[in-house]
Amino acid sequence: MLGKPRKKQEMTTEKNQVSVLFMLFSILFCVCLIAANVLETKQIAIGTISLTGGLIVFPVSYIINDCVCEVWGYRKARLLIWTGFAMNFFFVGLGALCDAIPGAPYWTNQKGFHEIFGLAPRIAAASFVAFLVGSFVNAYVMSKMKIRDKGRHFSARAILSTVFGESADSLIFFPLALGGIVPNHELPKLMLWQVVLKTAYEIVVLPLTIRIVNYLKRHEGADVYDNDISYNVLKIFNL
């Protein structure tokens, strides 16, 4: 009788553990989100196309999301997304606090610091909401397509999940953050280019993504199918 609770506790502990590789992917995911926040403050131009600097790194977060969902399943991806959200929120909060504290009398770079870390509440809120919706749409599409295709056609679900996820992200972020600032006729073009280029990014690095996924499956001995799970985004610690 005394042994049963201990065994149950050991099984629960093992179930709730994550691997070292999952932890490293989570760290990289959080770094990409935080870097994207900083890089988004610069508007860049590729030819006649106007974009934000976040395009350089933000798609990597979707690739990591794909890898985690494919190997460890939706429940681990859900933990990853909420962890990234929390760390991003923490970073933005620290930046806003530091921006609000008066600078030293001899310091002359307040304007530049404010341009990077003084995110307007509207933009910050739009970014957080768009990230959550886009990331969960991406993970959901990956999970459902894997079950439907019985593990085949990874390339198709990696690309389609990015299309759906990035579309949801852009449809939320740009109207909320830039509506009334960017001309209305420019917003659809800006959103479309973001989706197209981020998806193209995914396609270009797809051979590398496939190699990483195959390595992770071999190394971790994991290839999770999300049969009979809850897709409730709030069940964070249900691993």
TrEMBL record:
<feature type="transmembrane region" description="Helical">
    <location>
        <begin position="20"/>
        <end position="38"/>
    </location>
</feature>
<feature type="transmembrane region" description="Helical">
    <location>
        <begin position="44"/>
        <end position="64"/>
    </location>
</feature>
<keyword id="KW-0472">Membrane</keyword>
<feature type="transmembrane region" description="Helical">
    <location>
        <begin position="119"/>
        <end position="142"/>
    </location>
</feature>
<feature type="transmembrane region" description="Helical">
    <location>
        <begin position="190"/>
        <end position="210"/>
    </location>
</feature>
<comment type="function">
    <text>Involved in the import of queuosine (Q) precursors, required for Q precursor salvage.</text>
</comment>
<dbReference type="GO" id="GO:0022857">
    <property type="term" value="F:transmembrane transporter activity"/>
</dbReference>
<keyword id="KW-1003">Cell membrane</keyword>
<keyword id="KW-0812">Transmembrane</keyword>
<comment type="similarity">
    <text>Belongs to the vitamin uptake transporter (VUT/ECF) (TC 2.A.88) family. Q precursor transporter subfamily.</text>
</comment>
<keyword id="KW-1133">Transmembrane helix</keyword>
<keyword id="KW-0813">Transport</keyword>
<dbReference type="GO" id="GO:0005886">
    <property type="term" value="C:plasma membrane"/>
</dbReference>
<dbReference type="InterPro" id="IPR003744">
    <property type="entry name" value="YhhQ"/>
</dbReference>
<protein>
    <recommendedName>
        <fullName>Probable queuosine precursor transporter</fullName>
    </recommendedName>
</protein>
<dbReference type="Pfam" id="PF02592">
    <property type="entry name" value="Vut_1"/>
</dbReference>
<feature type="transmembrane region" description="Helical">
    <location>
        <begin position="154"/>
        <end position="178"/>
    </location>
</feature>
<feature type="transmembrane region" description="Helical">
    <location>
        <begin position="85"/>
        <end position="107"/>
    </location>
</feature>
